[in-house]
Protein 1
Amino acid sequence: MFFHRLLFCGSLLGLFLLSSVAGAAIRPYSLALNPQAGQFFFEASEEIKDAPLYSLGFGYQISDNWSGLWTGGYLETKEETGQRQEVKGYLGSVEILYRLRPDRSLVPHLAAGLGFLAFDRDGTINADGFAEYGIGVQYFLGPSWSVSLDGRHLLREAQNFTATAGVAYYLGADVEEPQLTDLDGDGVIDVFDRCPDTRLGVPVDGYGCPADEDADGVPDYLDKCPDTPLAAPVDKFGCLLDRDKDGIADYLDACAGTPAGMAVDERGCEAAKSPIGHEDGIADPRLQPIAPPPATLANASRPAPAKKPARLSLQVNLNFRSGAAEILPEIEKELEDALLVIGKHPGYYIVVEGHTDSVGAASSNLRLSQQRAENVRKYLLEKTGIPPEMTRAQGYGGARPVADNGSQAGRAKNRRVIIHLSENAEM
């Protein structure tokens, strides 16, 4: 019996020494099916031979460290003296296990519990209860499987020991859900939020940044003029700039820098010297001067060179479907209106610009924008009879957005074509 106890204690010490292997193992709230096999050691005074023990356990992982285990076992042996009767043993126990290193692949545990042990000698059954304690270790082969070694000391009228090895299969893992936090409370989770510190209550776009529906650079919650035309220069309040204070916004002003108090026409030029003539004396509202690129906006107040040829931008809103270049009926309707304006300016050269949103590869978008521009150019040639050498198509891909590509509405505005008119072939 002394040898058995020595073997028992030595095995348990070895299990603890092995538990230095690191890895992720324990799965809280999982169920375990745990078949085991080993040896049951009887006290010498019982005069019963040690015997193989077979058991089946059912466990529940309460937390990282704690779990419960119910086990039922069976053994067959013989008495060592007398008539050497056959003895069948039935074992049942309920245990609490404490796992010492649940973040490792090799996890040692302590165990304590209560149980019963019944012996059947030719139909005569004797049973008594016991308390037990012990130690063990599990090695996790993956998220669902482990192997284990266990030792128990059973305390009853006689003292017994068990040593078993087994496998365990786990069901219903504790799958940790990602934390979808939104610290600024703008409705865009932090992992996607490009502006994580927006003020509470400020409307935001799909990237979590303050919304700017008219894409003028002034957020909507500060914008006092929320419907300014796209690309038109604005002040810090989001309203149209008029640097020469002539009542004509800079983006429409063909004669920026007119002296204060000068009478101007609808183009911002001296009333008798408008650079654009109209047969009926009324400017077409869809004809606008080309806005300077952003890098030159600071110079917008300088008077335009006197000999600069007239150049107009035909503001026609041609919104294409994503990834498409075909001219849909609603686009054709806009082009029919454009033909009326083009007809009033015979002899003007025409450049058709194609643009896309930012979805897709830059090279693909460049080809798509060129195709859009070419399709519109062909349409104009068919309808007007303009000489082909007086027209040109140019694609820019997504390089010149006029709205935020982070929203569906913004991307729709960027899928567009613009028609430019010029008295000079070099535009």
Protein 2
Amino acid sequence: MRAKIGVELLRSKAAKPKEKKFEICDTDLKGFTLTIYPDVVKPSGTLPGGKIYGVRYRLADGKTARATIGRHTLFTPAQARDEAEKILRQVKEGIDPNKKEEAKVNHTLRSFLDEVYKPWVEAHHKNSRATLGHFVLFPYLLDKPLDEITGHMVEEWRTARLKAGIKASTVNRDLTAIKSLFSKAVEWGKLADHPLSKMKPSKVDSAGVVRFLSKDEEGRLMAALDEREEKMRAERANANEWRKDRGYPLYPDLRTSSFADHLKPLVLISLNTGVRWGELSSLTWDSVDLDRAILTVTGGNAKNSKTRHIPLNSTALDTLKGWQKQSTTSLVFPGRDGGLLINVDRSWNAVLAAAKITVFRWHDMRHTFASWLVMAGVDLNTVRELMGHGDLKMTIRYAHLAPEHKASAVAKLVG
């Protein structure tokens, strides 16, 4: 029988005991059940049949099983439904509720991390390497049992990090990583309580200084990139002269190409679209519409897993048109082996040094894109959409770069 398991059902005739036990399957939550047992007749009298909440589920090997939640006198239908959802979530994560006690081995932080949490992170996190990298900062906790780690231990770690001069925002990211691990440990039945649930992140000035290129720095950066390109073309020409004299096959002439290599187009696209490094390195040509001048960051490559479309200005469009003529792979900016481009740190740092630009990361080109938009009068919500921010709070940090809005607001006070 199928019906919505709720208070109305319990009060209805449909849930009255019969000669044999029977089961009602919930119409809203697949697997959630209510089993009605028949009345028991004894010499001392008739005992009413029981009503037991349960869950049916299918394991990864295809076998079906069921778990008992409890008698209807101990749970309201809503409470039983919540318990059923918890059990079904555990099954989805590969945990058999009937082996819960067996699963509750006395994991240390290290064993839980290696055997349970790491496989899950690698399957569900785009940048699993960075996520797992946070835990190298907790060496003295790794061999402690999970249930012996306390908030005070982690608070001592945080205090020491802050005293050492580590930025509060950095410490917060590390804290978030370990709190997420404990949240999963509780969810998966490895821990009874979350030891860090009451720990709050350190206060951070969210409207702090945003590093972006000034127009003078931009000019120096472009000049350094052009100088690098010219040097590479000259070196290629000299190399071909040497090979020609000796009868060797010549390398492609870089003077006939739009770009000497990938660095300059990478920089130009970053500055004019604001895409993240991971979005740029995984960008494929089928996500670039040169006819309509639109670059698409697909959900699979986006940090927030949401697809967004970025219009290409003339600089970005001309760059991609020129670069496409030199491309031979589906990736727009492939690595040397044709796979993902990991980084351009060496050449990028050399260009920054040549341009005499300091304290500037690759990611700061994304800040530059947003900052230039705001200073050009673009509203914050449009900037948010172009940047792919999930929340306007992320975009507010650029608001101070458009002081005319605040100036016009206070000017209204003048009669």
Protein 3
Amino acid sequence: MLEIVRPEAAAPGARAAMFDFDGTLSLIRSGWLDIMLDMMTGTLSALGSGESAEQLRTESFNRVWPHTGNDTLFQMAEFAAMVEARGGTPEDPRAYKQRFLDELFGISERRIAHVAAGSAAPDRYLVPGSRAMLEDLRSRGLTLYLASGTDHDRLQHEAAVLDIARYFDGGIHGAPFSKETLVTQITSAPGMHPGMLIGFGDGPTEIAALHGSGALAIGVASDEPECRKVSPFKRRSLIEHGADYIIPNFLCRQALLPVLFADHEPV
């Protein structure tokens, strides 16, 4: 379950940990990518470019995946550019974002309602092992930060529904606040340096930001919604963007944590 991409990568002096939200901890929005691609493919097909639905979906995926983890507006700007390139008149990316969110909320709100009504435990919509990992890191004295491309108010609400907001004493940071900015703020704080930060994410944005800063990056290549095995695509993408370790969920924490905090001898 644990893949070590870069042997000896560790952070024995870690004082902080940053987590992405959707797909890394939360499954409330599981299925968002299919909803987005369905919306884009349907709109583009209607423009009559002669491309097959499969071709349009593939290009849409290739255009939006690199922005996963950023504000959804980045993905919708790519969508608008694709519409314009095919002779269409694109809507404002903010309008596309709202259309996407309206469809997504139809699913996520039902899941939230199940938790609120007590018919589903919060952990049903968490990547397996998430709560134990958060509690373990807090018990080790690390300050935890939550960062997401999800709009800030919505992120706070969903984190509260899942009963994980209380773990993030470093704060909850949603869009338009960027993960790159947060990584810089954490690692440049008094007494801190990049080797003191550990980060977890399932998207290229946060993994690239962590790796680029010199922090330790753990790729959560969760094959949603079960999250019991590694998604081959996520694995490739996360390794390409600098992941030091790959895991499918947090059930392997007893194997993962000792290597993350190992004090390796210099090579």
Protein 4
Amino acid sequence: MLLNYKLIIWDYNGTLIDDVGVSLKIVNIMLAKRNLETITLERYRDTIDIPISNQYNTLGFRFEEVDFGELAHEYNELYSQLSITAPLREGVLAALQTIKAHNVSQAVLSSSKLEVVEAGLKRLHIFEYFDEIAARTDILASGKTDVGEALFQKLHIPPEQTVLIGDMLHDFDVAQTLNCSCILLENGHTSRALLERAGTTILKSPADLIH
């Protein structure tokens, strides 16, 4: 499915790394700390959004009472502590190895902070599979369209020869802006029902990418 492309762009959270459980735990810690109702995994996947401030607003955080920057800092601190046990998604390594063996370029595009993404890729022993790591310089998870545009300008690979793989509607929106193809994976941070709104290919697992 992927080997006809010249560039494959991977999202990080929920696509390469199986960290949705970590994110759910952190959000519930933050909610409980402020006496707000905690949520299930299903509720998390149905409300996830980029910018992440949209989800926080939906879940009951009131920015007139708590600064969003404070929430972002709190999340980032907890993520640094708890994500060290989050594994690769099943099937990712085989997909990366197959793609590399066919000399197709691979990159990472993330809304997360660059240092966090690079540290995770190194911990998971997959850093060397990527020609470029493109992510934010802040912790606000405000989106990655601009980061993706900068990545395209640097690599000079035509959009029609590129596919973006992600697990959120934001990944599809970014792909639309960049005029490249998009494949979405379920069982990440977003519910299947939300992903279906994109009207693009949805696969259950990274393993399905190379079959």
